[in-house]
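Hey, sorry to bother you again with one of my protein questions. A protein chain has come my way and I'm curious about its shape. I'm sending you its amino acid sequence along with the backbone structure tokens. I owe you a coffee for this, so here goes:
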Amino acid sequence: MAKAAKKAEADTDDKPEGEAAPAKKKLPLKLIIMAVAGLAVVGGGGTGAYLFMHKKHEEKPKEAVVKPATFVDMPDVLVNLAGTGSDRTQYLKVKVVLELPEAELVPKIQPLMPRVMDAFQTYLRELRATDLDGSAGLYRLKEELTRRVNAVVAPNRVTAVLFKEIVVQ
């Protein structure tokens, strides 16, 4: 501690009285901002390069085995459509296939086929010929039949109802 006090006295003795100590030079604000920005860019680039290279060298996950879909043919459905006020009766003939995600579901769904056919018949008899116009009408029909089948076979699920043939006469 004594050495520090002597050093302080020596520093003050060298300078004449009345003269202030020279001010320390400060770095300009622009230089500080540019240095921080430069460090951020370099740091960000390094981090990005590390993450990019790290992802390339990671182990690739094994490819998932895609199970082939299973299809179940339904009996043909022939119903008369709801009347539109004209004298002519119109009929709808539909050949449908159910798409199942797994083959193990076939024995679970087969006993429920009478209920599925009943759901088809009751819904299709309510339709008018105008309900089946265009691709939008057929899409709505497909979605509604899929929904009704899934309600009947729950907790099992049918992936889709596919049309083989649709005839309106």
Remarks:
- The chain has five helices and four strands.
- The mean pLDDT is 81.
- Strands lie at 70-73, 77-80, 91-100, 160-168.
- Residues 70-168 form a domain with the Tetrahydropterin Synthase; Chain A fold (CATH 3.30.479).
